[in-house]
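Supplementary Methods S3. Complex input for the 2-phosphoglycolic acid-bound model.
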Amino acid sequence: MDNKKIVIANWKMKLSLAETSDLAKEMKNKFKGFGGEAAICPNSVSLVGVGKILKGGPVKLGAQNVFWEDKGAYTGEISPSMLVEAGCEYVIVGHSERRKYLLENYSMIHKELKAVLNIEGLTPIVCIGEDTVERKTDRRDFVLVNQLQEALGGINLMGDQQVIIAYEPIWAIGSGTAIEPTEAEYAHKIIKIALNDMFGMRVVKNNFRVIYGGSISSKNVKEFSGLEGVDGLLVGGASLDAEEFYKIAKAILK
Ligand code: PGA
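Predicted complex, serialized as structure tokens:
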């Protein structure tokens, strides 16, 4: 498979249910004729409704979170098969905001990832990235490799099963300042080398994409579009406006 670039919107907890469905409708229209792969991840309560809106259109549905069991007494949680039933094709796993506020850790992320890969039709977007202190103390490469090993160690991918790794430096998320493009290129190289070590080059080429996230906007996206090893983007704030998100999506395809 020739890995296509992908752009994913993370709407976090930023829109009401009414705003969510209005924006989903706008996105569906705006992306008519868009040649690439695009997905939006609304809040959990809106998944079923947005799934119906997006059905048959160019934009796919993703969730922001998932639990590692498929059924049982797990109050408040949502299983991978429920997400598929709602129409999801993607799910974000281990976003740094969940690691910070909900104390999600990489052993939980590992279990979530395994559960997602057990279900047909759901592609995980696994988030990794260093924080400010790790950046300042030059531990980034070590942190990234460690996070990958904890999340993906011991996992075998079947056939063309897809995994997306989102490199999101925590200090860049929502800060208005994205990483320097050359630094992103370097980090993506480190990630691909680590994945090659774990899975072999053929699997990495066919089954993995590594995307960047953190303060991407239509203003800075052009600097990221030509970068080697950057297979797409995860966009927060700038994805809350259909025109802005469409501009970003078009630019990264180039
Ligand atoms: P941002 O968020 O684009 O607003 O920095 C990205 C993310 O958290 O995925």
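The chain has one domain: 6-253. The CA atoms of residues 61 and 88 lie 5 Å apart.
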